[in-house]
Design a protein that fits this description.
The protein is α/β, with parallel strands linked by helices and 342 residues long. It has helices at residues 41-48, 97-100, 141-145, 148-161, 178-189, 201-209, 223-230, 248-254, 276-281, 294-305, 322-330; strands at residues 2-6, 15-19, 29-39, 64-72, 84-87, 90-91, 111-112, 124-128, 132-134, 169-172, 193-198, 214-217, 236-241, 255-263, 285-288, 313-318, 337-341. Strands 3, 4, 5, 8, 9, 16 and 17 form a seven-stranded mixed beta sheet that branches. Strands 12-11-10-13-14-15 form a six-stranded parallel beta sheet, with helices on both faces. Strands 1-2 form a two-stranded antiparallel ribbon. Helix 7 (223-230) packs parallel to helix 8. Bound molecules: zinc ion (ZN). Zinc ion binds at residues 92-93, 95-96, 98-99, 107, 109.
């Protein structure tokens, strides 16, 4: 089969399209013919490498996979060849107290397909049977692949960790990002007023089409000043952040008393200073969030199939253009997900 392989960390040149042996499913695994695989920020980290983190090189990236079942392992039940499926990207032990409580993303051995084992930037991928979610004919593979990682992350941030309530003012940073474009929809669905930051006027228009009530072009305006104006100087109840250092201090200042900030990652930088006085005087909550549980993704997929939540596809490109997809993402030219068609 053809697969994108990373033998060493670095720039887009380290993404090599190679021909390697077809993978074989173990007894409790399933072999998938990949039809579409979305690119995430995680793919950029896997490619570049992260100091202090080891990846199982050489490896195939790609965490958001949709395709068709080709072969099932000997002990797998309820899944058949030719089933249309999307893959839940989280890997966990299924035995620990976190897993058994339905919080598999808190499992000590938690991993992600495309980060801790080979992913879907390939013609074939083997995944655990427990990670399979069937999808209907009406959902295109390119749309299905645009859902798992970003919508799962957004749901867990906005609903589970952020505890959004009807009437809340929610600031979503980077509304054009995969997580941002999902978080806008999840917050709106739960009755919030959504303010989002974007880098271009075109992205502002698209964010409003997804339901954002107010948009702030952060290249032209200071988001803190504008969000204060929009909320009548009250500040916001909830900040959804995947940007990090560039927006940290002002995001905390923008929270009203009892406000919550949920962070799921850093596209700008991870070292910040925090004025702790804001946190105790205003009774603020600073919350971390990584992925979400399998049951949350099942819930999200149901809402996607009912067209309540809409996958946001920026562009669809062939697998051999994976390097260009990474470059487009690094240049922040995308709105929503860049999907590789296999
Ligand atoms: Zn576990």
């Amino acid at each position: 089969m053809k697969a994108v392989r990373i033998h060493e960390h670095g720039g887009v040149d380290v993404l090599k399209l190679e021909t390697i042996d077809d993978p074989k499913p173990g007894p409790d695994e399933v072999l998938i013919e990949v039809k579409a695989c979305a690119v995430n920020h995680l793919d950029l980290w896997v490619r570049r490498g992260i100091p202090g983190q080891r990846f199982p090189l050489p490896m195939t990236p790609g965490s958001d996979i949709a395709g068709v079942v080709r072969e099932v392992g000997s002990t797998v039940k309820g899944i058949r060849a030719r089933d249309r499926v999307v893959i839940q990207p989280g890997l966990s032990c299924h035995r620990c107290s976190s897993c058994l409580a339905g919080e598999d993303n808190l499992c000590r051995s938690y991993g992600i397909i495309g980060e801790t084992r080979d992913g879907g930037c390939a013609e074939l991928v083997v995944v655990p049977a427990i990670n399979i979610i069937p999808i209907r004919e009406s959902l295109a593979f390119e749309e299905a692949a645009a859902v798992p990682l970003t919508f799962l992350t957004a749901w867990h941030m906005v609903v589970t960790r952020g505890g959004v309530r009807p009437g809340d003012d929610v600031l979503v940073h980077a509304g054009g990002s995969g997580v941002g474009s999902a978080a806008i929809q999840v917050a709106k669905l739960n009755g919030a007023r959504v303010i989002t930051t974007v880098g271009t006027d075109n992205k502002a228009q698209r964010a409003r089409e997804l339901g954002a009530d107010d948009t702030i072009n952060h290249r032209k305006y200071d988001f803190y000043t504008e969000a204060r104006k929009i909320t009548g100087k009250r500040g916001v109840d909830l900040v959804i952040d995947s940007v990090g250092a560039d927006v940290w201090h002002k995001s905390i200042k923008l929270l009203k008393a009892g406000g919550r900030l949920v962070t799921c990652g850093v596209t700008s930088g991870f070292e910040v200073t925090t004025d702790i006085r804001y946190i105790f005087f205003r009774n603020l909550s600073i919350l971390g969030s990584t992925m979400g549980s399998k049951s949350e993704l099942l819930h999200v997929m149901r809402l996607v199939e009912r067209k309540v939540l809409k996958p946001v596809v920026d562009s669809v490109v062939p697998l051999d253009k994976v390097g260009e997809a990474h470059k487009r993402m690094e240049a922040r030219k995308h709105f929503g997900k860049i999907v590789l068609k296999v």
